């Protein structure tokens, strides 16, 4: 298969400058390890390129890094990515406490804030961190300024700790677009949530839980009459 190692005839000067800059960056790279080639391609082209897409372009170009970059830029420059923003920006420090191995849902309110309708086949997937067993979610082709609620079914990890997950929207070809979406979960010991809820209910009532006092048979118990004053 013939591979075009240079910019296409329709590429502009900006594309040529980008390609020349990238070629200078990897001119000293020499490796045949496929995993390392994928990582290098992702590093050079930025976070918009996921693993499967990087591997696809490398395989298509017989694992030639230079040819894979040129092919990707030729296609990317001719394709405009969709737009997406969160209706409410995520708070990175926001976390939810949950017990191990518990099913839960994460919902994001998203909107197409661009001038074009999303193409068919867009989906959401975990791009970094713990996926919480959440799978790929296919999205409808939203029209401009149309919104939807993205729901992902997840399961908390089995070991206590703090976990985070980064999710991105992808085109059918695997290019990331839109705002990143975060899930931050604190997994606590089993039974901790019930105790926390009990303490919270006492706090809401303005009282603190009274400790249970064990009966001591060696201390005489005073009768109710001994506490009663009689008024004549």
TrEMBL record:
Signal peptide: none annotated. InterPro entries: C6orf106_UBA-like, Ig-like_fold, Nbr1_FW, UBA-like_sf. Transmembrane segments: none annotated. It is found in: Cytoplasmic vesicle, Autophagosome. It comes from the Eukaryota. GO terms for cellular component: autophagosome; cytoplasmic vesicle; phagophore assembly site. Keywords: Cytoplasmic vesicle, Metal-binding, Zinc, Zinc-finger. GO terms for biological process: macroautophagy. Pfam families: N_BRCA1_IG, UBA_4. Residues 94-187 form the Nbr1 FW domain. One of its GO terms (molecular function) is zinc ion binding. PANTHER family: OVARIAN CARCINOMA ANTIGEN CA125-RELATED, PROTEIN ILRUN. This is Nbr1 FW domain-containing protein. It comes from Zophobas morio.
